[in-house]
Structures
1.
Amino acid sequence: MPPEASTTEGARSRNATGGASSAAAAQHRRGARPARPYHQPRHRTCGPGVGMVLAPAAAPTTPLVPPQKLRWIVEPRCPPDWSTQLERCEGGFFHSPLGLEFACPGGEPLFAELLSGNDEVVGVAAGVRWSCWLRRRPRHYYFPTLPALVGPALTDEVVADLPRALRSLGAAEVVFDSFDAKWEPTSVGPEAPPRQEYVVPLETPLSQVVGRLRRDHRRHVRDGDREGWTLGTLEGEDARTLLSDVLGAAARRAADRGDRFAVQIPAAAMRSPAPGLADAWGTRVFAAWDGNTPLAALVVGWANRRAYTLQSGSTAEGYRRSASVWLNWRVMSAFAEHGFRTCTLGGTSVAAARPEDPAHGLFLFKSGFGSQVVRCQGTRWTFSRTHLRVHHLARWALDRFRTAKA
């Protein structure tokens, strides 16, 4: 879903795909340009031995090899040791199968491993591909985040080898978004604006974390505790119903501020039974309650002991009482008790830091938890400009037809 679909305290960021990204991914599925522009790197110095191979996953060990001896292997099925590789390569939720289901539903999943000369895994990536009406063969590839890499593999040149390998399978474009990304490409032009995410470390004692909360946030946490609010989880239709209510209310408030967005609730958020927090990856719907009255709800995804807030919102009463502050704090506390290292509160555009920006309220909310502000940037490779130009012309013609018909 994986455009910024995260809504919190009536404010929302308009990233190119941040609490989650199905809207932007849907554009790729139709062969459209991404919601935010990407840049094709000017330099792609790819080393020898890079290629597209179908093979089983390799055993994990620490790599110490030159980049020119690395190669990407791509598989349509998730390797059985994927959780081990995510841990080893510092991957996160958007590298997991469930992250793909949440970020870009409907696409054909792909799992890529970067292997050294002796078949040791030194990087992982996960994405989807789609066919379009121009060609039956998949031409559009989308990755909700950048590859997770270890050792000497952290280079633009090595990562560029993956799109080049996908090109051999017929890719017209390969887009990497930047959700929960741990590094930033250097070969990016000004037409690919950065975004920023808000990361709360959970390994620090919570008594110290609460001291870093903004004063108003601390007050809202105390208010919820004093009034006896409770934290609960929801599954299936109960989760869908409450999320529809709170996200719908958040969308109406955002529209009043000129920051309109569509409500989308992925099926991945409502699995029943919901996975346990000890599982390798999963999603959970949490809710704040005052007795039997729901006040706020949020969806959190996780993998490799890193949590990521995907969607959140409040009822009208919960918004008035700032229930999302209490709910986020209690959810972060629960993840900390289960040994999680970080919780990322989604992202915003860089412009959200400016008071005049429509998403400034979301910036204040997320930064108010003492978050570390992390710059994130995606990138894009275009291999068939003619193919994409035909899509552009078709969309233009369709828009003109709809306008004339209206």
2.
Amino acid sequence: MAVEKKVLLIFIQADSGVDGAASLEGASAKRSLFSTLKDTALSNIIRRAQFAIPPLALMILSSQKVPGVSQTFCDLRFENLPLDQHWDMAGISVQTGAVRPAFELARALRSRGIKVVLGGPYVSIFPDQCRDHADVLVIGEADDIWRDVQEDLLAGALKPEYRVATFPDLSIERVVGKSALDIKSYFTTNVVQTTRGCPFSCDFCNVHVMNGHRLRHRSIPAVLREVETFLKKDKRIFFFLDDTINADEEYAEQLFRQLEPFKIKWVGQATTALGEKPRLLDTFRPLRLRCPPDRH
């Protein structure tokens, strides 16, 4: 009988601020007492404030099940690495602001014989800077290739690189679950993305590089089913993580009119052009919009 493979999915936040990474339990370089006390204090502040949402990318990955592989989620904002257990592979999503701690963590895990997979925005844009720090790189949106990585882990045939050939078709429904999350640790776990891509080319932003200029849409029925399912476990506010919630006004109007029966409160990001669209604003208003303007 084949032995189950164990995968640890790790979220590591930027190397500064109140949501910085938790201690690596001595795996990284020795730190000063002041730094340790500071991190402990800040970690306690985060726990009390509870103003944190789970990373959607790792929610998507943990929802892709392969028989013979178990996936566990570890959020370093709230918990230490479970190094008392055996892990066959660890996956780390690397944000630009977390490159240094991510590489340090990868080195520590590899020294223990754990295969390390790096992915995320920084890896997708700068893969050459990451090759020496991982056993495997996942380049691009991983929706359609994470199962391949798990299956190759089972077969003992991991490749050094998995690269997305085309952007995932978001009209294909992919169920996202919360089973890997400790729901009470978060401000809310209701994080939803309805579109990817951005028609703008702002030089301070990498979205159009990562996700393309063409806006890709999830089907409205799929989004409605996800909202309904999420509400069963968490009735708190929703975060719509689209880079620009009003990028496609017709789609946004149809979606949010159909969301009205759920009576949710929500947060999203929009361009300032939203202020010139009274009809769309009227659609958003019944849902108690909390929408910080974008700079586009």
